[in-house]
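Researcher: I'd like a structural prediction for the single chain below. Treat it as a standalone chain; there are no partners to consider.
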Amino acid sequence: MKSLLFALVLIATSLSLPSSAQSPAAAPEIPAKSTAVVGTFDRSSIVLAYYRSPLWDAILADRRFELKAAKAANDSARAKELEKYGAESQDLAMQQVAGKAPIDNILAVLQTEIKDLTTRLKLSVVVDSSTADPGGASVDVTPLLLDWLKASAETRKMAAELHTKPGR
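Model: Treating it as a single chain, here is the predicted structure.
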């Protein structure tokens, strides 16, 4: 429960924290085996970084603009729809951080970058680390995905702290 509360606080404060420049992560070292290598990512880190990203900020800004325009035009149906989107998005984010909802919306956004990483690093696939074969050859691509999401130093610190909290 404390981890969920911590994650909710992280999301709630995400829009007000400034992002800071990050140097790109170095390409991960690929195992020298001739077997298939799987790229893995830490789900909670990616969820947190997505909802704190400039990309998500832009999506929210567009929705806020639409809501303001709908209200100005007295389009109560559209305003209600946009308000519902906001509430549902916040609920989904909380469920995803808690590990209780799929992250399909985030993976859809990352699809192009994941394909690029798969090709560039000669990976067979990129998957959530919790679903990877623990005995198979793998490489962590989380830092590269955090780079793509423009994760700030603060976001990276918060993601690391998620793993040090009791109950995780």
